[in-house]
């Protein structure tokens, strides 16, 4: 199993931040099923202030460049979910061109 970590900010609006959390408390089953169908095993999203950190565990053959695109095509509600999330999220100024969630680089592990 492989692990990836990503970060993004929430918009600077407490009401929208609360709504974002509520939306995830009631995530659409099509989104969960779509992610699992492309190789997602686990996902955790953590928050501090406006910053979100997402950690995903995926099957060994998962390629983020392919898997996340495939996820959007598993069900029209997946693309709708991602489009809806745009109003809550703010891409980091350091993000690469076309990148929404910025991938974090692992610099230390204890096993």
Can you give a write-up of this model?
With 111 residues, this protein is an alpha+beta fold. Helices cover 36% and strands 27% of the residues. It is built from 4 helices and 5 strands, in the order βααββααββ. The chain has helices at residues 14-25, 29-37, 64-72, 76-85; strands at residues 2-10, 40-48, 51-58, 89-90, 102-103. Strands 1, 2, 3, 4 and 5 form a 5-stranded antiparallel beta sheet that branches. Helix 2 runs antiparallel to helix 3. The longest helix has 12 residues, at 14-25. The relative contact order is 0.26.
Please name the defining characteristics of this protein:
alpha+beta
Radius of gyration: 14 Å
Q: How large a portion of the residues is in β-strands, by DSSP E?
A: 25-35%
How are helices and strands ordered from N to C? EHHEEHHEE
Mean pLDDT: 96
Q: Tell the overall outline.
A: globular
Fraction of helical residues: 25-40%
DSSP strand tally: 5
Oligomerization category of the chains in this entry:
single chain
Regions with little confidence, pLDDT below 50 for 5+ residues: none
- Alpha-beta content class: alpha+beta
Reported for the largest beta sheet, the result is: 5 strands, antiparallel
Terminal-residue CA separation: 15 Å
What is the tally of helical segments?
4
């Amino acid at each position: 199993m492989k692990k990836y970590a990503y970060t993004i900010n929430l918009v600077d609006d407490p009401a929208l931040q609360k709504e974002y959390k509520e939306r995830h408390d009631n995530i659409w089953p099509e989104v969960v099923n779509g992610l699992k169908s492309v190789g997602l095993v686990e996902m955790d999203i953590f928050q501090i202030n406006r910053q979100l950190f997402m950690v995903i565990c995926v099957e060994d053959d998962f390629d983020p460049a392919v898997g996340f695109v495939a996820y959007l095509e598993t069900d029209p509600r997946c693309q709708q979910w991602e489009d809806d999330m745009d109003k809550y999220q703010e891409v980091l100024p350091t993000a690469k061109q076309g990148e929404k969630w910025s991938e974090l680089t692992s610099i230390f592990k204890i096993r």
